[in-house]
Amino acid sequence: MEKKPHFVRREFLPREVPSISLALLLAAVLLLNAFLYLYLNKFYSSLGRVETEPGLCPFGHFKFGAVKNCSPWLSCEAINREVRKLKCVGEGAVKKVFLSEWKEKKVVLSQLTNSELKEDFLHGLRMLKGLQSKHVVRLLGYCEQQFTILTEYHPLGSLRGLNETLHIPKYKGMNTWHRRLMLAIDYVSVIRYLHSSPLGTLVMCDSNDLDKVLSQYLLTSDFHVVVNDLDALPLVNRSAGRLVKCGHRELRGEFVAPEQRWPYGEDVPFEDDLMPPYDEKTDIWKIPDVSNFFLGHVEGSDIVRLHLFDIHAACKKKDPAERPSAQEVLDTYRRF
Ligand SMILES: Nc1ncnc2c1ncn2[C@@H]1O[C@H](COP(=O)(O)OP(=O)(O)O)[C@@H](O)[C@H]1O
Ligand SMILES: [Mg+2]
């Protein structure tokens, strides 16, 4: 009696084990397939997402709005034929900026205003071409012969109007310390990008006062910051001993970095040839002032300021070499 079940089990096992393991094997294969399917699906769809992100068209191409395909930058002929100027929406020292229409889309046509500044204009265009990325306004076309550049239109305009924009009822909800800190993070991300760009270490020279800095950047409709005006962006090459100077005139005031000011006192008249050159750390000196503008005066912004006190004090070190890199500032901002 005792042995019977044992016997039964022994008799039962040799025939049942293969079918159970077969079923288990089948289940495992099915499960593996399911996992592989899910993983690959996720992998490909994430590739798809990257592809639809702006700035990832091949060089010389763009896409924007709902259009999925990349188109080549518009040529002189295409700009003359297909772009219609609507109204002037901005003007700086180098360009006049027109809201325009291209294929029922709003775009911006920038035209050189002062023929003495051709070189600056062409430098800005070269930079726009070489730096296309999420940090830079999208280039749609250009015509060197006519000194025109076609870019994406950003209806919220330059960062100069940030406080006014944040007081419009539609955007009041955006006027929080958190959003404002995000803008400061975006801004420092742009500086970090320029300092380690595909074209080398570039200094944002169009930045002698806060208003000037702010007018070179645009606020996108989804509240991000892109740099727009790249006309004054000289290259630093420290290993080759190449430093820069922002213009040929004397710079004064607390906004510019100490090394940008005439070092020989009031008694020695300014002379460009005697003015020592400097590097990208001038941009770091200016970060606290620009960030303070971003943070504004809303509930919580003073607490953020307090947390950023040490890194901002480091940005204001008199010796440029002691200032942090844009990456270090960014890391500190992001840790907040
Ligand atoms: N794509 C754009 N969308 C909206 N406004 C723009 C755009 N481009 C320029 N602007 C406006 O025109 C102003 C001047 O443009 P900018 O390129 O800085 O000219 P400049 O080289 O003469 O300084 C900007 O500060 C901004 O207000
Ligand atoms: Mg400008």
Automatic annotation (TrEMBL):
Role played: Protein O-mannose kinase that specifically mediates phosphorylation at the 6-position of an O-mannose of the trisaccharide (N-acetylgalactosamine (GalNAc)-beta-1,3-N-acetylglucosamine (GlcNAc)-beta-1,4-mannose) to generate phosphorylated O-mannosyl trisaccharide (N-acetylgalactosamine-beta-1,3-N-acetylglucosamine-beta-1,4-(phosphate-6-)mannose). Phosphorylated O-mannosyl trisaccharide is a carbohydrate structure present in alpha-dystroglycan (DAG1), which is required for binding laminin G-like domain-containing extracellular proteins with high affinity.
Entry-linked Pfam families: PK_Tyr_Ser-Thr
Sequence ranges assigned to domain Protein kinase in this UniProt record: 83-336
Keyword list, A-Z: ATP-binding, Endoplasmic reticulum, Kinase, Membrane, Nucleotide-binding, Signal-anchor, Transferase, Transmembrane, Transmembrane helix
EC category: transferase
Record's GO cellular component terms: endoplasmic reticulum membrane
Gene3D superfamilies: Transferase(Phosphotransferase) domain 1
GO molecular function, one term: carbohydrate kinase activity
Taxonomy, superkingdom: Eukaryota
Protein name: Protein O-mannose kinase
PROSITE patterns linked: PROTEIN_KINASE_DOM
Localisation: Endoplasmic reticulum membrane
Reaction(s) this enzyme catalyzes, per UniProt: 3-O-[beta-D-GalNAc-(1->3)-beta-D-GlcNAc-(1->4)-alpha-D-Man]-L-Thr-[protein] + ATP = 3-O-[beta-D-GalNAc-(1->3)-beta-D-GlcNAc-(1->4)-(O-6-P-alpha-D-Man)]-Thr-[protein] + ADP + H(+)
